[in-house]
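Sample intake sheet
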Amino acid sequence: MWLLVILSVSASVCVAESQDERKPVRQVVLQGILGSKALLLVDGQRQMMSVKDTAKQGVRVVRIAEERVDVEVDGQRRRLLLGDSYSVIAQYKVRKSTEVIIAKNNTGMYSTVGSINGLPVSFLVDTGATSVAMSAQHAKRLAIDFRVTGEPTFVGTASGVSEAYRVILDKVTVGDITQHNVRAVVIDGNYPIQVLLGMSFLGQLEIQRDGNIMRLKKNF
């Protein structure tokens, strides 16, 4: 475990059952654009695809442009922006909730992409962290002036006690789920490697783990 006090990585989750009949959901994430090809994460599996390719897993690339890709998912066209993810429901209806599906990575952790204040971020889901947590390097890239706007504090890590700063993030987005005024902590140094998506974001959602996937659901 990387952080011992408020940021310990935990495999346990809060399970919230939905009484609604679940519709088939597909998740497609745009992870990168490499020339004429798009790197997509389709239901947890990476696919390198171009406009010329036939559909894979029901997904076809229609157009590739700077920082965005148009795709068809089971016949539905969606525009993917770099760093965002979208859940595509098989039949359109007015939604009373939004759901994001996150698959385990090669290390057995739940990892996904999203954004903070509109800038792309790689998240490690951590239900044991009391808040979103990031390194000083992450904060610098995200233009968070934590030394000026943050409140000094200390956190316990595997290497001892580290200086940190409490901050408020204007906007945190994962898939179609966006939360505003999210509490976070910036830890001096280069760790954690990934931004930890803690309970200051997750605590407002229903969380369900099903095998190798985690479902995050926001009710309206």
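Comment: The chain has two domains: 1-15+96-220, 21-92. The first strand starts at residue 25 and ends at 34.
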